[in-house]
């Protein structure tokens, strides 16, 4: 034993002695402008030892042998620095400051500049902007786990998402303001929406790998269109590089929702009828005109998720012409296992559970994007850009539903149900947007600049041959009886189509005169003219299988075995779902920007917007024609002032304050008295020709601190006053939901946004608290004579305070980051929390539907193989939490036995969805 101790001691002494002959070099590397030189390579000669500057601007070299060395550092845009350093059994600390590198070309001085797609550029834009703005760079977007813009934008402070039934984000909710209170731009230009009812753009249409950056502006200036209260989302697409470059991106993955226990369900979409007979001039269709051979279920245990992208760009003709072409294709299998309850209001104010639905969704999404941009630098003062973009999303969805009537003979304990139905819906949705923008920028002299844009855009939404196949059944002791085809309209075939065309012209003049009383000044004037035309078409055919019930296994096995009888050969004769509408906007503005002593910047002015909006129904119902609602047109003018202050406390800190007024116009179908009975929650929607525009008054205050590099700290508050906010309410008596104005509403809150790096590790976190209040009149039941159980039940009303629809009081993001440039590793673990918020409004007191708060966690990692190649992994929905909607009314003892409901006294569960986990593995190659 003694020999072992002596031997270990000698080894320890030898090891310690050898290591005392080495030292450590630690230091920081910054530019003369104070920016950390993130990613710069620090080389020690002649040993060739290298280190990489971390995210906090620091580097280190361990176990450096004693001796004299030359340390060298290079970074684009800065002069190379060399310094002698001596190591002698100690830690040497260095502070390396690189000077900016300026190259003199005749009379022009060109400085090295970072690309707009870098994280550092995004932080600089936030700091220098005249508005309250948050920016995500292409670097941030590529590392995030997100494939489309909708999921990317949820990482921004104050932004949450409205999701579709497969769990994918679709629409942004900014600062608790529903999607209607925000608008979307591509390269600074507004685009139309393919949505069949509204003007807001589904953000899941856009592949995220086409972006150079994503900008969310939360305070409007007069040179911006004035129809936003929450914010403006601007997608800056990839721009032509300064030299030849390209990128190839390929990946494959899987959705764990589908497999042996739950195979992916689809049908032969190529058999869909693109147009119904009536659109082809057939006034009296026959059942034989409608094939059903394609409506047979197909099953697969594995449907791959595939992502591919390619971008190539270069400059030609002595760098005068720049071109970039980029394309992206994504195929994703999505879906959910869902439970839905339809509810009612009982006379005592409690909630009844009328029907339960087990819903399984199977969606195959194919998303494609193509964009091309060419710019022509005529000379140093004149530039022309031509941008074209096309995005496409097809969504082939099967919704397979088992519906159980939960009253009468329903016995959830013993598994008995006298009335059940089985509904399979086959629906393809094809959404497309095309945009072409020609833009010119002209420096007319040293103090005057002009720019203009001519824009053509078209968006369309096509739902061809939306088929719904309904059967009936029952259950005894958990055994299902054979399905039966009975009743009218057991099969329906529906077609919906709408398109939205914009023709717009923007112009802006910028003047920068020298004024004695300010350090810098800028005056802008300009306006726009936009002509928007929208058309909506609809058709529906209904079929039955005859007068006697057909039993599965005896009379039929699949839908092709049935001799279908057409109920309405002429289709729908009177349909308010067929309409055209228009919205013509003329706007003009004046704006000033004054900089006092390089510290105080003031931006303000006023915008005027003239609106001409209306609709025409070519086939109105008699009721609408008699009421004079077959067409409508109205015009109005809004003056929208704004004023913004930015005070530079020091070179790293700003204090901002702003006010702006805005106008929110109703969606197209919201003021057209049409009915839509194919909504996801199965309530008929009805337009309201009396709905008015909303006026918003908005205040912002924010403190910003940018210590160095990508680090930042922001804290701010906001207050919004809305006059005539538009929200939907559910009228159970009439059986539809309708948009309407609800007096005045307030919305206020705070935002905190923090990014901090510790060399290779970083934390990105943001939190938003939002409080809103709107008072609306709600109905409730009561005995005509209180206390007299024999008196009639009557409906009365009372005022109820509640938050705005879609607003969550608490929203938070937390991401843990790791970036090791030496080993080429980037990792991110991202968590999003969205708090409780109103999902759907009820016409009854205390009966609104609330989406419960939930966490979502995603992970992504990249490993650089060489200078050109990296591999990556993206994993979605790690926690697999349920998406749940509830009514805050207690369930009864009997209801507690219903599937998925809780214990007696718990809130009524209305909806529960599970989406399961997904992953992608891929490769990127830069050339």
Task: Kindly describe this structure.
- This protein has 927 residues and is mostly beta strands.
- The chain has 3 domains: 2-101, Immunoglobulin-like (Sandwich), CATH 2.60.40; 113-239, Ferric Hydroxamate Uptake Protein, Chain A, domain 1, CATH 2.170.130.10; 248-926, Maltoporin, Chain A, CATH 2.40.170.
- The chain contains 5 helices and 53 strands.
- The protein has a 22-stranded antiparallel barrel. The chain has a 5-stranded mixed beta sheet with strand order 10-15-16-13-14.
- The longest helix has 18 residues, at 2-19.
- The chain is globular and about 100 Å long.
- It starts with a helix and ends with a strand.
- Residues 5-20 and 103-114 have low confidence and may be disordered.
- This is TonB-dependent receptor.
- InterPro entries: Beta-barrel_TonB (IPR000531), Beta-barrel_TonB_sf (IPR036942), CarboxyPept-like_regulatory (IPR008969), Plug_dom (IPR012910), Plug_dom_sf (IPR037066), TonB-dep_rcpt-like (IPR039426).
- Its main location: membrane.
- Pfam families: CarbopepD_reg_2 (PF13715), Plug (PF07715), TonB_dep_Rec_b-barrel (PF00593).
- Residues 461-878 form the TonB-dependent receptor-like beta-barrel domain.
The low-confidence parts are 5-20, 103-114
The CATH superfamily of the largest domain turns out to be TonB-dependent receptor, beta-barrel domain
- Major sheet: size, sense and barrel closure? 22 strands, antiparallel, barrel
CATH C-level label of the largest domain:
Mainly Beta
Helix content: under 10%
Oligomer: single chain
Total of helices: 5
Strand content: over 45%
CATH-assigned fold name of the largest domain: Maltoporin, Chain A
How far apart, in Å, are the first and last alpha carbons?
63 Å
Task: Specify the overall morphology.
Answer: globular
Q: How many domains comprise the coordinates?
A: 3
- Helix and strand content put the structural class at mainly beta
Q: Roughly what is the average pLDDT, rounded to an integer? A: 88
Give the second-level CATH assignment, the architecture of the largest domain.
Answer: Beta Barrel
Radius of gyration: 31 Å
- E-strand count: 53
GO cellular component, one term: cell outer membrane
Keywords: Cell outer membrane, Membrane, Receptor, TonB box, Transmembrane, Transmembrane beta strand, Transport
Subcellular location: Cell outer membrane
InterPro entries: Beta-barrel_TonB (IPR000531), Beta-barrel_TonB_sf (IPR036942), CarboxyPept-like_regulatory (IPR008969), Plug_dom (IPR012910), Plug_dom_sf (IPR037066), TonB-dep_rcpt-like (IPR039426)
């Amino acid at each position: 034993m003694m020999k072992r101790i002596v031997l270990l001691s000698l080894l320890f002494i030898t090891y310690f002695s050898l290591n005392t002959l080495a030292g450590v070099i630690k230091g920081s590397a910054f530019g003369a402008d104070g920016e950390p030189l993130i990613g710069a390579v620090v080389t020690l000669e002649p040993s060739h030892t290298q280190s990489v500057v971390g995210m906090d601007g620091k580097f280190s070299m361990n176990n450096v042998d004693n001796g004299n060395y030359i340390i060298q550092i290079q970074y684009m845009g800065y002069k190379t620095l060399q310094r002698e350093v001596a190591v002698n059994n100690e830690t040497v600390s260095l502070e390396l400051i690189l000077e900016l590198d300026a190259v003199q070309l005749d009379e022009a001085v060109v400085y090295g500049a970072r690309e707009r797609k870098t994280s550092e550029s995004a932080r600089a834009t936030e700091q220098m902007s005249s508005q309250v703005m948050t920016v995500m760079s292409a670097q941030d977007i590529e590392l995030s786990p997100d494939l489309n813009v909708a999921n990317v934008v949820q990482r921004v402070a104050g932004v949450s998402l409205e999701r579709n039934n497969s769990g994918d984000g679709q629409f942004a909710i900014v600062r608790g303001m529903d999607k209607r209170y925000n608008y979307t731009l591509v390269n600074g230009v507004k685009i139309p929406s393919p949505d069949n009812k509204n003007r807001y753009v589904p953000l899941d249409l856009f592949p995220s790998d086409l972006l150079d950056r994503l900008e969310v502006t939360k305070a409007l200036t007069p040179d911006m269109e004035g129809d936003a209260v929450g914010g403006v989302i601007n997608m800056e697409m990839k721009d032509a590089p300064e030299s030849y470059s390209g990128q190839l991106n390929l990946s494959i993955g899987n959705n764990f929702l589908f497999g042996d226990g739950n195979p992916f369900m689809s049908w032969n979409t190529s058999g869909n009828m693109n147009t119904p007979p009536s659109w082809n001039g057939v006034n009296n269709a026959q059942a034989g005109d409608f094939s059903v051979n394609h409506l047979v279920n197909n099953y697969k245990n594995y449907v791959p998720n595939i992502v591919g992208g390619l971008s190539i760009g270069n400059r030609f003709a002595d760098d005068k012409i720049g071109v970039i072409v980029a394309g992206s294709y994504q195929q994703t299998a999505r879906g959910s296992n869902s439970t839905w309850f339809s509810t009612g209001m009982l006379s005592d104010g409690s909630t009844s559970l009328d029907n339960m639905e087990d819903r399984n969704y199977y969606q195959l999404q194919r998303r494609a994007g193509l964009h091309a941009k060419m710019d022509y630098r005529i000379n140093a003062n004149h530039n022309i850009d031509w941008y074209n973009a096309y995005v496409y999303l097809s969504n082939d969805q099967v919704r397979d539903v088992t519906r159980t009537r939960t009253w009468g003979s329903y016995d959830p304990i013993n598994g008995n149900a006298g009335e059940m139905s089985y509904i399979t819906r086959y629906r393809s949705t094809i959404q497309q947007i095309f945009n072409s923008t020609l833009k010119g920028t002209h420096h007319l002299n040293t103090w005057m600049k002009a720019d203009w844009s001519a824009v053509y855009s078209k968006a369309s939404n096509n739902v061809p041959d939306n088929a719904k196949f309904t059967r009936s059944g029952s259950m005894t002791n958990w055994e299902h009886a054979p399905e039966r085809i009975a009743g009218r309209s057991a099969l329906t075939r529906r077609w919906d189509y709408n398109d939205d065309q914009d023709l717009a012209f923007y112009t802006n003049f910028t003047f920068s005169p020298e004024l004695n009383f300010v350090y810098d000044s800028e005056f802008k004037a300009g306006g726009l003219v936009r002509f928007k035309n929208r058309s909506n078409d609809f058709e529906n055919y209904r079929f039955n299988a005859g007068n006697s019930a057909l039993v599965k296994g005896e009379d039929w096995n699949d839908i092709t075995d049935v001799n279908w009888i057409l109920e309405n050969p002429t289709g729908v004769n009177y349909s308010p779902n067929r309409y055209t509408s228009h919205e013509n906007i003329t706007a003009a503005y004046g704006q000033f920007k004054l900089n006092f002593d390089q510290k105080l910047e003031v931006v303000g002015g006023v915008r005027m917007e003239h609106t001409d909006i209306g609709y025409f129904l070519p086939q109105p119902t008699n009721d609408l024609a008699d009421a004079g609602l077959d067409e409508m047109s109205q015009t109005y003018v809004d003056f929208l002032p704004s004023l913004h202050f930015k005070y530079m406390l020091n070179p790293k800190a700003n204090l901002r304050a702003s006010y702006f007024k805005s106008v929110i116009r109703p969606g197209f179908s919201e003021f057209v008295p049409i009915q839509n009975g194919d909504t996801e929650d199965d309530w008929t929607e009805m337009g309201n020709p009396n709905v008015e525009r909303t006026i918003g008054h908005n205040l912002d205050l924010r403190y910003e601190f940018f210590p160095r590099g990508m680090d930042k700290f922001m804290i701010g508050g906001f207050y919004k006053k809305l006059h005539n906010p538009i929200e939907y309410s559910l009228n159970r008596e009439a059986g539809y939901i309708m948009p309407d104005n609800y007096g005045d509403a307030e919305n206020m809150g705070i935002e905190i946004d923090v990014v901090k790096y510790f060399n290779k590790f970083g934390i990105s976190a943001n939190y938003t608290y939002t409080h809103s209040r709107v008072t609306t009149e709600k109905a409730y039941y009561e005995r005509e004579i209180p206390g007299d159980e024999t008196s009639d039940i009557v409906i009365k009303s009372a005022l109820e305070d509640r938050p705005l629809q879609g607003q969550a009081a608490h929203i938070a993001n937390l991401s843990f980051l790791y970036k090791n440039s030496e080993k080429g590793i980037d990792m991110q673990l991202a968590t999003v929390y969205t708090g409780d918020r109103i999902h759907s409004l009820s016409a009854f007191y205390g009966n609104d539907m609330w989406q419960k708060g939930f966490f979502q966690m995603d992970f992504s990692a990249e490993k650089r193989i060489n200078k050109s190649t990296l591999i990556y992994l993206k994993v979605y929905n790690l926690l697999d939490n349920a998406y749940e909607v509830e009514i805050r009314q207690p369930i009864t003892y009997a209801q507690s036995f219903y599937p998925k409901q809780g214990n007696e006294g718990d809130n009524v569960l209305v909806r529960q969805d599970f989406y399961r986990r997904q992953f992608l593995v891929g490769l990127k190659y830069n050339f």
